[in-house]
Design brief:
about 450 residues; mainly alpha; 2 strands; elongated; endosome; Vps16_C; cytoplasmic vesicle; Spe-39
């Protein structure tokens, strides 16, 4: 061991490299090298480690064990996996390897890289973010097995394998693999979406029958165009494409409505307030601002609020809510009743009736927030049929006349007397409360007389 250690630190392979070393090699060094060559026959890669382990006295720590070997630390199976993993990309030659052993090791690396793929080792390297050669997986079965192995582990390794399959397989094989593995399909769609490959993303969605998603993404991309002309062109392409495909009639209607909206913006100049990216509701608001006749709207005019809402398939609730907000903010309270008047379809000659398509309490609360006068609040509160709810809402929005009406409906005479005491003397609300009390007492007296006569 001592001889070997001295020779180890003095042999020529440990000296600095020079092109003249071959001429100056010490003959004694060559003899010593020949003497030790027999020790490199088995496991020559680990010779130095074996010697250092043999010279290490660990009897005190391990009792009867006098030698610490690799097998005492790693099992044969674990050691095999370590060696296989190293051969995938570790091309650094171990120290003091003879030319014959180096040739064998290179052959083994080429064999494992090009001819005998190791599925588990490759998948583990990809999972840990290491570079692993995939060209060794040549057959379709091997490629499918590699994808299944990475799908089981997850992570970004799936995308790398999918791109390798796309590059090395024809489109029919690649799409067949995606069709059989929905999880792989979602990974690939996510990659296309994040990478910005919009055309490929839409093509894959349509190929696998996901036409609704494809149509929605195309519509979103068209509406995202900042220039009005480009947006109109994209919408026209969508209308033409889906009219021929006849796949989603509902989406085709949406495309038509959006295209009609763009043409209306160009012709009527409705987008001056909200910009070229205005929504249909915002443009309906502009139509409400420009409308001059709410009692009898001109349905032949494309900017008439009712006509615009019908063309854009805006619901009655959205139309009424938008019109209420615009008229209240414009303080055009006389038009509010016209917005909520409807003529019965089954009896056209009947007078107009109040009709609201959303919660009446929301309308009252919104009018109160917009500081509508008490007479307007009372008008809407008078349409409520539930007296208890009407009373609570009237108290919340501080509409005294509506509170009095609700108390009369609930026959709360004592509460009316108490309310009267809190009202300013000789005020309009006080007179209104006194008349309500008289009306309530008169009705009670009449009811009592009827009972006595019976």
């Amino acid at each position: 061991t001592v001889l070997y250690s001295e020779h180890y630190w003095n042999r020529s392979s440990r000296a600095a490299f020079s092109f003249d070393d071959d001429d100056e090699v010490d003959k004694s060094d060559a003899a010593a090298q020949t003497k030790l060559s027999s020790k490199y026959d088995n496991n020559a890669i680990f010779n130095d480690d074996s010697i250092s382990e043999a010279s290490f006295d660990n009897s005190a720590a391990l009792g009867t064990l006098n030698h610490l070997s690799i097998k005492a630390i790693l099992s044969d199976e674990a050691l095999k996996l370590v060696l296989q993993e190293q051969t995938l990309d570790d091309h650094v030659m171990p120290k003091d390897v003879t030319p014959e052993e180096e040739l064998k090791l290179l052959r083994r690396q080429i064999q494992s890289t090009l001819y005998s793929p190791n599925l588990e080792a490759t998948a583990q390297k990809l999972l840990h973010g290491k570079v692993a050669p995939l060209e060794m997986f040549k057959s379709l079965l091997e490629k499918q097995q590699l994808l299944d192995q990475t799908l089981a582990n997850g992570g970004d390794a799936v995308i790398g394998v999918l791109l390798f399959l796309k590059r090395t397989l024809n489109s029919t094989q690649f799409h067949g693999i995606l069709e059989q593995r929905p999880k792989a399909l979602e990974h690939y769609l996510s990659y296309l979406r994040q990478s910005g490959d919009f055309s490929s993303y839409i093509e894959i969605l349509q190929r696998f029958g996901r036409h609704q998603e494809a149509a929605l993404k195309q519509f979103q991309a068209a509406m995202a165009c900042k220039e009005l002309t480009a947006r109109k062109q994209q919408l026209q392409r969508l209308v033409d494409a889906y009219a021929k495909a006849n796949v989603i009639p509902l989406y085709e209607q949406v495309f038509h409505a959006a295209l009609k909206l763009q043409l209306l913006q160009e012709k009527e100049g409705l987008s001056h307030r909200f910009g070229e990216n205005a929504t249909p509701i915002e443009l309906l608001y502009v139509c409400c601002e420009q409308n001059k006749n709410w009692k009898d709207q001109d349905m032949l005019k494309v900017t008439s609020p009712q006509r615009f809402a019908a063309d854009q398939e805006i619901s009655a609730a959205q139309y009424e809510w938008t019109a209420l907000n615009e008229r209240a903010q414009a303080q055009a309270y006389a038009d509010l009743e016209c917005i909520f008047e409807r003529v019965s379809s089954w009896h056209p000659l009947k007078s107009r009736q109040f009709h609201i398509s959303f919660d009446l309490a929301l309308a009252v609360q919104r009018l109160f927030e917009l500081q509508a006068p008490a007479t307007v609040l009372q008008l809407f509160l008078s349409k409520m049929s539930n007296s208890s709810e009407k009373l609570a809402l009237a108290q919340r929005v501080k509409c005294i006349k509506a509170v009095i009406d609700a108390m009369v409906s609930l026959k709360q005479q004592q509460e009316l007397l108490q309310l009267k005491e809190t009202l300013p003397d000789r005020s309009e609300e006080q007179f209104y409360c006194e008349n309500a009390l008289k009306s309530l007492q008169s009705k009670r007296w009449t009811t009592d007389n009827i009972k006595l006569k019976l």
